[in-house]
Amino acid sequence: MSATSYSSKVDVKARERALKVLHEKFYVVLKDILEGRPPKLVIKKRTLSNTIYEPERKLLLLGESVFERSLLDLREAKKFMQTLLMASIIYEALSNSEYPTIRDLYYRGKHTIRYRKLPSKNVGEENTWDEQSESDSVLRDIEVFTNVLREEMLILSKEKGKVVGDLKIRSGDDIIDLSKMGHGAYSIEPTPDLIDFIEVNAEFVLVVEKDAVFQQLHRAGFWRSYRAVLITSAGQPDRATRRFVRRLSEELKLPVYVISDSDPYGFYIYSVFKTGSITLSYESERLATPSARFLGVMMTDIFGSNKLNKKPYLTEEERRNFIIRAKERDIKRARELKEYPWFKSERWRIELDEFLERRVKLEIEALAGKGLKFLADKYIPDKIGIGDWIE
Amino acid sequence: MAVSEESFKSISPAEFFYKNKEIAGFSNPARALYQTVRELVENSLDATENHGILPIIKVSIRELEVVSEGAYYEVVVEDNGVGIPPRYVPQAFAQLLFSSKYILRQSRGMFGLGAKMAVLYAQITTGHPAEVVVAPIKSKHVCSFKLKIDIRENKPVILGFTTTSNISGKHGTVVRLVTLGDWTRSRQRVYEYLRRTAVIAPYAEIAFRDPEGNYLLFERSIDKLPPPAREALPHPHGIDIETMKSVLKSIAEKHVVEGLVESFQGIGRTTAIRILEEANIDLEKKAGELTDLEIETLVRVMKSYRDIKPPRANHLSYLGEEIIVAGLKKIFEPEFTTAITRRPSVYEGQAFIVEVGVAYGGKVPVTEKPLILRYANKIPLLYDEGIDVVYKVLDEKRGIDFKVYEIEFPAPLVILTHICSTKIPYRGVGKEAVADVPEIESEIESALREVLRKLRLYIQHKRRELEEIEKAVAIAKYIPEISESLYRVYKVDIRDTSTKLLELLNSRLKSFKISSLSSVVM
Ligand SMILES: Nc1ncnc2c1ncn2[C@@H]1O[C@H](COP(=O)(O)OP(=O)(O)OP(=O)(O)O)[C@@H](O)[C@H]1O
Ligand SMILES: [Mg+2]
């Protein structure tokens, strides 16, 4: 049996579905051409103004407004070509049982069009696309247009999410015990939907934004002592990590806690897990975890709060050592957050106002700096115990 | 102290122009060579086209002997014109201020000087006589003259005369001069002069052999001659006392009423009577009987008399749009040419017509300023452009702003201006610049704006067309890519899809179609 002809059963089913949808959805183009109409694609807009927050479901979703991408429209002609090109190479990869990465798709589609400028007849050269950002952008359009996400089209992206904990999963045809990863961790596969949960022995999920803090908690045996599934997104969460967390929450009914830096960027990372991101709002429905809780680090953890009748976790002197002065862009970002509907709760207002008033921030590493024991055995368990999180 | 007494004497016109050669354009050997060619060619053109003959003109310059100031050149100009009656040849070529063109009729010649200045300059620089061979139309003889000018007396001296029978039946004139020149320094001007003449006279065939042995032929590109100039009666508004006196002298025996009716444009019996009454002149008088005072009053009344039709212009010989366009096309091979002939207008009692042409793009050289070709009565004006009326209209600061017409320099633009009139207000007898008479200036400006508006339309149209072509290519270049993509998914024939897409694209284009995809995508 050769390596390439091997394919797990789940994959085969996913492929068939994606092929079918692509074939059906893009048929409008061929139909237009055969019937003598200028071909066009009608796609939902991926703009901020078409990103809608649904308070009941606590999700950031794509609105209903659409745009037309027509070949005969000079501004859209190239994108039209790129969209079809991308769709066709995905289609081909699916039929050939391949697992391209987005970088592969970029290279496969990239070549030079040589043409004659008229009336001069000078030769012009143009690439189908130059930057990967161009091919990525049409890929997103295809996801929106077909309502099939890249994972479902078996496109891989570079993944940085990692997980450890007392649980067994099936990935492909292997069973992996996530409690036997040594000092390493299982890196969450790009198609988390194809994972099966076999055995789970955990009470909650802790998502740590910073990889370094994840490693410290792992070595300290945090997940074993507290029966947690420990996950890091290593910065901005990628899609696979978000989907994986969502499945832990939805299918295993585990509560999810997120800890990040105490600054507007950290707060936003939490909200991406919870509600979805603005640029990729079309995926929220499958990727967001609306029940995720923000555990910290809160501004009120640092300074305490009279309003909340809350004592600070840091002493006056520790504060002086650990906090950093906020930059102008942090301030600006905080003001933006205050305007997002999903940050418009009383609890978040207190945190953001505190930040805007103090104009300082704190990295999680600083808490680990106070002592790993403090972080692992006091701060986190205490906060979970007394319910000091933001919903 | 003894006061020296002024001595008085008169000099002949020949002596005057001998001493003041530069006012006729003969200031140095280089300029003289150019001016010689010019005067002779212009006489040849007058002798042909004014008489309905399509001109064939041969010009040759040959170097004979190098001297310190330059070299002696033999200049020969031959035409197929009407020729000159042999009895007038000596005066026509060797007596200054003798002309057949001292009548109110548009022609290149005007002063009765040109040929004589060339002969005079040749004579005083090289000592050679002028040789003139004439065969008037239908003449049985061909007459050859060798002539010099008696400068003191301003009289022709005939050094030789022979006649042979005109076997071939040709007609025309050949003039041969040996003159001092400087070819190296006049080469460019001579060529430029001939080229510009060819622009305005595409109906002429002009051949030129230069001293270096180069041969240049401007072929005829249009068989149409401009309407011939006809003699006109003077217009009352253009009259002055001296002209009036000579008019009256020629009709001395007639009654003054009939005399005026007969001798002027726009005066009928009633008008004549009113004018005379207003001037307090006895209607019974004969033309020859008016006193100086009466003549003065008559001139004053006539000049300011309102109720007269403006001067007629149907006697003027303008080029017309067709000839201007043909000339510009022939010499510049532009992509766009247009011209307009304005309606006649009047300055100081003289009718005049302004014509302007433009040539744009194609092989027209791209320059920082428009290339201006000035003409007056079909003569190219090459020197003294700075003081010409046309330059006032085109003045960079106060004149026409080309940006308004969507022309940004450097640009490939030629502008041709032509003024024709029974009397051109030249700034000198060298005929190189026209004075800035307000009426002429405003006509030139209007004409120029009119053609520039047409040019702007063309430029706009072309721009739109170019934009459409660019758009078409910008879309067409993606077609093969799209067809291949569709093939990957639906296995539909690539050529079929491409053909359909191209048809679709073409059906949306207005001014342009892509003939085949292979003409765009490689
Ligand atoms: N090639 C020619 N064919 C026929 N007649 C000619 C030719 N050359 C000269 N003439 C006659 O000789 C006359 C004198 O010529 P000339 O050039 O001296 O003066 P012009 O042409 O009348 O005026 P201008 O001084 O303005 O040139 C002309 O008026 C014309 O009648
Ligand atoms: Mg002359």
How would you portray this structure in words?
The complex is a heterodimer of chains A (391) and B (522). Chain A is α+β, with helices and mostly antiparallel strands and 391 residues long. Helices cover 43% and strands 18% of the residues of chain A. Chain A folds into 2 domains: 9-153, Arc Repressor Mutant, subunit A; 162-386, Dna Topoisomerase Vi A Subunit, Chain: A, domain 2 (3-Layer(aba) Sandwich). Chain A is globular, with a radius of gyration of 24 Å. Chain B is an alpha+beta fold and 522 residues long. Chain B folds into 4 domains: 13-218, Histidine kinase-like ATPase, C-terminal domain (Heat Shock Protein 90, 2-Layer Sandwich), CATH 3.30.565; 236-304, Helicase, Ruva Protein, domain 3 (Orthogonal Bundle); 321-458, Ribosomal Protein S5, domain 2 (2-Layer Sandwich); 477-521, no CATH class. Helices cover 36% and strands 20% of the residues of chain B. Chain B has helices spanning 13-19, 29-49, 89-94, 114-126, 183-200, 241-250, 256-263, 269-278, 292-304, 320-332, 389-394, 438-476, 479-490, 494-507, and strands at residues 56-67, 70-79, 130-135, 141-150, 155-165, 172-181, 205-209, 215-218, 336-341, 345-347, 350-360, 371-376, 379-381, 413-421. In chain B, a hairpin with a 5-residue loop joins strand 3 (130-135) and strand 4 (141-150). In chain B, 43% of the residues are buried. Bound molecules: adenosine-5'-triphosphate and magnesium ion.
